[in-house]
Amino acid sequence: MLRREGYEGRITMLDEETDAPYDRTVLSKSFAPDSAPKAALRPAGFYAEHNINIIRGKVAALDVSSRRVRLADGATHAYDALLLATGAEPVRLDIPGHELPHVHVLRSLADHRAIVAGAAQAKKAVVLGASFIGLEVAAALRGLGLEVHVVAPDEVPLAKVLGPELGAMVHRRHQEKGIHFHLPQTATSIEAEAVVLKNGERLPADLVVVGIGVRPRLALAEAAGLTMDKGVLVNEFLQTSSPGIYAAGDIARWPDAHTGASIRVEHWVVAQRQGQTAARNMLGHQEQFDAVPFFWSKHYNVSVRYVGHAEKWDELTTHGPLAERQGNVAFRQNDKTLAVASVQRDVDNLKAEVALEANDEAALAKLLHPSGSLH
Description:
By secondary structure, the protein is an alpha/beta fold. 23% of the residues lie in helices and 28% in strands. The chain is built from nine helices and 25 strands. It has helices at 46-49, 109-121, 132-143, 159-162, 164-176, 219-223, 268-282, 346-357, 361-368, and strands spanning 11-15, 52-56, 59-63, 68-71, 76-78, 82-84, 88-90, 103-105, 124-128, 147-151, 180-182, 187-190, 194-197, 202-204, 207-210, 214-216, 232-233, 245-247, 252-255, 262-263, 294-299, 302-308, 315-319, 327-333, 336-343. The strands form eight sheets. A five-stranded parallel sheet has the order 8-15-9-10-11, covered by helices on one side. A five-stranded antiparallel sheet has the order 21-22-25-24-23, sandwiched between helices.
């Protein structure tokens, strides 16, 4: 976006991963041997063509007063404007056996390659966690012909995010495809050939994938003295408490223009849009970030699209036969629609996004309930 807006100065990307920038969303969709190349975010030569210098190395410190970034190897880089986009890292298990070689997390392309290699030799897999990532991993492994078991502490997968009815629909779809669920249940240890559950059951496994959530990578910002609030606190322009430093993506907590709350969202589209807004603001545009959050998740041939942000709600309104894998769910708090999830109704979800952007409850009511009422 900096280049698109006409900026001709130096752009440096500091990245500790050895792979070129890539699309993380595809990593959980397939573990076929040829799936990794599809993750490349840009074609070969793109960064050189646009004079974007990528430097591989871990950032050790951020010196706000002198506007310099120091790498672990001692090299330093000066900046006029800086974007922090350090993302998140997987939460790791702390149970006996969590360090065994057949136990994996999924965040990076290196993690993906390790799972591809493990899946090629495996017959029985256990996925710990029924998050979006966990269920997408389970579906991808099942697609390779593995026997797959999912272990999670939830009564209904995804109910905390999607509500019980939509969560149950996703649950049934995975069961229909042959996924075995162990709910509500947790693992107490991992052995070379099995996962041991709290109820004493042993699940044979030669591949284990842990998908129990992520945590934002905040250490660099904290050490630099930036203002924090369970994330890096930014204003409506995505600027941190330090002039010239912006934050975007999983680490950024910003004032949401639609709910009035300070929110942090761990989704790909939000990170993309925030990166674009931050770029324009680095160039002095003073553009407010007011996009409505959005994400999608695909479970075999069933697509769930979610727009808005509802960490909690006091009312769920459903329109459409969710049992038949169609419909919309509105998440409401204090008579205000905070978010809409749609199943196989992509156009409805786009219309809901427009209505949420305009804070248009009447349009949402007409969309989500033909009678004109959300109650």
